[in-house]
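Good morning C.,

I know you're traveling, so I'll keep this short. The sequence:
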Amino acid sequence: MKFLIVAAKTGGHVFPAASIAKGLIKKDHKVVFLGTGAQIEKNAFKDISLTSFNLSIEGFRGNSLIKKSKVLFQVLINIFKILRIINKEKIDGMVGFGGFITVPAGLAFWIKGKPIFIHEQNAVLGTANKLLSKFAKINFLGFPIKGIKKSILSGNPIRDSFSVIQSVNNNEGLTKIYITGGSQGAEYINKELPSMFKDLPYNIKIRHQCGQNNIEMVTNEYLSNNINAKVNDFYESPVEQISWSDFVISRGGALTLSEITSVNRGVLIIPLPTSIDNHQIANAKIIEKMNMGMVHYQNESIENLKQKISSIIENKTFRNWTKFNNKTNLNATSTVVAHIEGYFKINETV
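The tokens, ready to paste straight into the viewer:
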């Protein structure tokens, strides 16, 4: 079989897409990738040998009426481009991971009468996935979402490196914290976190992923507060940083939370308050319900955040978080691939 994998622009979309691409290839299927040509897409697929195509398309929500009109025109043009790709590459089905790029792809496959499979990483269906879910053959879900027909709770496909769970470092008197705002960094986390540890009566060691162009500012903040911290704009191996830590402080992105909890680490989550449909808050609440984290809302006081961090360290709350494991994500790739193969086997015999 031959599949078109569709994902673009954000790590939360493209890294799960790359995991599924690898899973399909291991099962002797062929894969074609459709993206926008963004660097993060190239990074995610750099060790996968496949044919790729790029589209020019922008997001729909949050734009002006003129911009939305332009996007709708792009959708129409791109439907015809994707129809040509389907015919040229003889593609059997599509696997989409959200984002507006999946809309023209899904419509092209619907026109051709070919099966569509989607994967939603968050605890809330995104706009594109909400549209495509109506005629998708299977809706794979990273987090439980009620009311989605033809859905399977697959978990979020994560990188192979997360399959090895490392033991927690329990050095007495030392607490290791990995702080990340995601691959692009987070302004709130970069500005507020370095000062959180000033005057706390604990032996703390920090690694902080700050995003591009922020390293000097964040490093200086830690130095001025005399905090033992290593700052990097981007860590190539997140599993190494997460496994090194006793707990993580992060935003509420689906992939980040799935990766953290898959290797027995807990997380203090600071959801992005402007995330579409408040999906980061929904993600965070599920992790908190799993007893693998705690939520701090950005509209709460800075003093409240400091108290939460102090409490986690003082009471060794992070040790309780390590007793749990979100294993669904470790098996997500094989679950998705098996169900896609199962769909074709059933329909071949009908």
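Safe travels,
E.
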